[in-house]
Protein 1
Amino acid sequence: MNKKNILITGASSGIGAACALLAAERGYNLAIHYHSNSSGIKLIEKKCKEMGVSVQVLQGDLSDLNDINGIFSTLDNCSFRIDALINNAGIVDKTARLDEMSFERLHRMFGVNLIGPILVAKETVLRMSKRYGGAGGAIVNVSSVAARLGSGNQWVDYAASKAALDIVTKGLSDEVANEGIRVNGVRPGIIDTEIHAKGGAPNRAIDSAPLVPIKRAGTAKEVAEAILFLLSDEASYITGTNLDISGGR
């Protein structure tokens, strides 16, 4: 059986890195994207290649249209057919109230967390859809349980960007369901990754564990397992769905 190819954005750490390692373990050839964490992506590349799969590393800022175009040009030039997309790249900022947020912060947040994933999905559909001569495939957008909790006094802007991404998941799934493409989303809750430190709260996963019915933070691998399931043939009748991975929160 020919190996399938998977594109993962934001694969240098956290959930994206866990997805890359699990996908490699399951035999996918990889195109792994990163923005600035070059040491992280090199480590993931090395580990994946040790599992016997091919790995294409892609660098770019997903809030920059030229960088997005460059990423897909690179994939086209190396004849990388996209069978699956994990639309994972995203950012947070320092915790703040909405009335403390600047225009620049909001512009960056929505550029990376919403407009970027929409454009990545667009370019993927143009290559994957049977309407355009593709072979079909599956897309998973990585949202957040914040999309329905609001994240007041922390990241209302982040929550809003992810809520909008949930709507994109549903709308896009309806558009391409008859073109061989399934589109789903996952909403992780409190997951023990580096993203909390980037938001100025490195202990947030531990401190927030009592708020979770299961009484612990989740792991990046637990999220990756759910994502790879949604991309697999076992999920062939699932599309337009956002799956909470939040320990019941």
Note: The two ends are 40 Å apart (CA to CA).
Protein 2
Amino acid sequence: MSAEMKDYYAARAKEYDKIYAKPERQQDLRAIEQWLPSKFAQRDVLEVAAGTGYWTQFIAPAARRVVALDASDETLSIAKTRPGVAAVDWVVGDAYDMSLGEQKFDAVFAGFWLSHIPLEKLPGYLRYLNGFLKPGARVIFLDNLYVQGNSTPLSERDAAGNTYQTRPLADGSTHKVLKNYPTELGLSDLVSSFSRQFSYTTWQYYWAFDYRVDG
């Protein structure tokens, strides 16, 4: 994670969960909270960019084991207070350079992380992630759909096609944040070299991409 992104999420930690309080998104959130846990039933799960642990609290009770990694002490300090996460192994670390030793997992979850990875780095990043996975492992990415009039407007696009938002925080600071909105076709193409099983699910404000790593 870039230094700028790490600083942004550290500064945002105390107000991050406001995003889950938006009234218009409650129906989607309840649906995803019901949909997600069974996908990880009795699996050894690596959660990348766990943030404040909002999704960890739903995954952990269903999983056999959860290792939850995030770059920010500030967000993980909030995550550790969630219900149902007493057995989670919390790791402060860089999602691009995860110091997890020889551990192998049969599932990965990343919520609102894929959209922050530069497009040019995505293929290499997924190959790196696969190095921590057992054959047949399940990977689920959850992220935002762009909804006109509700999502933060895009303020910039770079030469590689990455898009950016300008985000204000309660302390008065503003931050330029990389935020991409991949398509179903783009995601399918991205994993086609190592997965023959994948699916794309949408709600009004969110999407999930679920794939299995070929054995």
Note: The radius of gyration is 16 Å.
